[in-house]
Amino acid sequence: MGIEQKTANMGAVTMRLEDAVNWARTNAMWPMLFGLACCAIEMMSAQAANYDMSRFGMELMRASPRQSDLMIVAGRVSQKMAPVLRRLYDQMPAPKWVIAMGDCASCGGVFNNYAIVPGVDVVVPVDVYIAGCPPRPEALIHGILTLHEKIRGEKITTWA
Amino acid sequence: MNMNEQLQPVITALADRFGAQSNEFRSEITLILTPENIANACQALRDEFDFNLLEDETAVDYWPEQEPRFHVVYQIYSMHHHQRVCLRVPVPGLKPSLPTIETLYPNANWHEREIWDMFGIRFTGHSDLRRILMPYDWEGHPLRKDFPLGYEEVQFSFNAEQIDQDKSYAKREQE
User: How far is CA A40 from the centre of its chain?
Assistant: First the structure.
């Protein structure tokens, strides 16, 4: 109590390193533009004015994987697109997270055939799955906040 | 009907020169040709009768009911006369191949690539015959009737756990 008051009076605040790093990671997470199909429209509308995602730090969507932290796989992934998806995921610098948005990205959705990959988690490791066909923008924002809570709970042993 | 009157000289010319049999269904004319003279028939349609737009080129698989197995269907339209004619070519199933009409109608390029990808019908003389919808190293031709559906088993309550064990998320939990 005493030393913290002293340092605070001098303008120095102490906190755990995990809290600081996780706070920084969640508060300015830039998603990569990966809208493939119909879920992309809900992602766009979540980014737009009515259900603003910029209030959660996602100010803009980067088209380049080198400059983004979060890949929101919005839409169905076909067999031809799966290697492209993996390559773009590999090009993202760590730390990176993946949200599987919608039913098609989570489990194949309504499609059960030769052309659609049954769930994007056979290609990239997924952190949060969002159900819905398509999920409402509020559902997408809820999924992103769930991801934020997951990152806030990360320990130094996982990323150091 | 005036549609038939305008098309009648086209049909009789094609029937005389290439032996085309014609069917009519609800004022739609279909001409059945053979693989040997489809290219010449399309050339005649384009050059002499002003049928300048290939609207669609696709294929149907009638296995195992009919022999020959594939029918390649061409829908050719004339903008000048507002007339449409449909050509059908029966193709047998063993090493199916047809001459390409890409030199006559350039938009047949992608249509024929799709037919090669989905049915396995080769087009001789095509400039770039490779897969267009499936990955380039895919094996098999998906829209044939003997291609497996490629679906995974639906999880009901009685087999839910058994299917779960083979999934990727189960393996990650075990690690």
Answer: 14
